[in-house]
Amino acid sequence: MQQGARSSPIVEAADHVLTLLEILRRDNALHIHAAARELGVAPSTVHRLTQTLVFRGYAVRRPDRTYVPGPALPRSPFDATWRTLAGQWRPVLEDASRATGETVHLVVREGDSAVFLDSVVPSHALSVGSRAGTRLPAERNSGGKVLLAHLSHAVVRPLYAQRADVDVEELLGYLDSIRCQGFALSVAESERGITAIGVQARGAAGQPVAIAVSGPSARFDRRRALATLPALKEVVASASE
Fold first, then answer.
1. pTM of the predicted structure, to 2 decimals
2. Residue 29: Cβ-neighbour burial (10 angstroms; 0-12, 13-18, 19+)
3. Helix, strand or coil for residue 32?
4. Strand pairing partners for 202?
5. Cβ–Cβ < 8 Å for 49, 17
6. What is the gyration radius of the CA atoms in the chain, in angstroms?
7. Going by C-beta distance under 8 Å and a sequence separation of 6 or more, which residues neighbour residue 200?
C-alpha cells in the first residue's frame, strides 16, 4: 500500500485565530480589511473570527469598527506594572468608595484606550458593577478623559490619526476645558444609564492614574456626581502626599 503525502498539522481556522491574536498584541488594534489582506482571506471570514474573540473577551469592538485587545488577552510587558498599581491604589479606592457611597475605579491609559485595573463596589444593591479588566475608548469615559487632558496636543493628535469617528480638534478643545477644571464627567457615554466623574492622581512612582466614581444615572446624576467631587479630591490628595 502506497503511503500518501504527509498532511500538514496546521488547522487553518485555528491558525487564522492565532494570527489575529498576534495582530492585536503587535498593533494594539485590528482593522478587518487590513487583517484580511494579511491572512489572505475574505473580510467576512475575519469578521466571523473576531466575533468569537469578542465573545471570549480577547477583543473589544470599538465605535469606529476596529478591534482592540480585550481583558482576556495577556499583556506580558505591562501585567506586572499594572498589578503593582492595582495593589498600591486599592486602599484609595476603598476610601473613596466609603466617602462617596459609590463604585470607584482605577483607570490607566494605553494609547487611546482607558484600561480599568481595579474597582471597589459598595454593598448596596443599586450600584455599578466592577469594570476591572475592561478596556474602553479613552474619550468616552471620565477616567480616560482626565488622563488624556493632561497630555499635550502633540501627543494626543497622533493617537486619533486613524479614528474617523473622532473630531480631533473638537476633542482637544474639550480636553483643554477638562484640564482647567481638574475633573471629567461622563454621562451615558461608555454605557447607557451610567454617570461618572474622574480625577487624575499620581503615586509615589509618578505614574499617572485616574480615580473615577460611577453610579446609575437614575440616582447618581450630574448634580450628584459633582457633589461627590470634594470628597473624591480629598481622598486622592491624601494618597498623593
1. 0.70
2. buried
3. helix
4. 208
5. yes
6. 20
7. 146, 147, 149, 150, 208, 209, 210
Phi first, then psi: give them for residue 136, nearest 5 degrees.
-130, 160
Q: How confident is the model at residue 241 (pLDDT cuts 50, 70, 90)?
A: low
Using the 8-state DSSP alphabet, how is residue 31 labeled? -
Q: Is the pLDDT of residue 95 over 70?
A: yes
Cα–Cα distances in Å, from 153 out to 136, 165, 175, 198? Answer: 21, 18, 9, 20
Helix (H) or strand (E) holding 61: strand 59-61
Sign of CA dihedral 154, 178, 28, 44: negative
Unique residue bearing C-alpha cell 480615580: 211
CB distance 217 to 225 below 8 Å: no
With a pLDDT cut of 90, the percent of the chain lying above it is 49
Amino acid at 21: L
Task: Record the cell numbers describing residue 164, joined without a space.
Answer: 474617523
Q: Quick one: angle between helices 12-27 and 32-39, nearest 10?
A: 130
At 10, list the grid cell.
496546521
Of 115, 120, 135, the closest CA to residue 209 belongs to 115
Whether the predicted pLDDT of 205 surpasses 90: no
The CA angle 188-154-64, to the nearest 5 degrees, is 40
* Tens-digit pLDDT profile for residues 105-153: 999 998 888 988 889 999 877 888 888 878 889 999 999 999 999 999 9
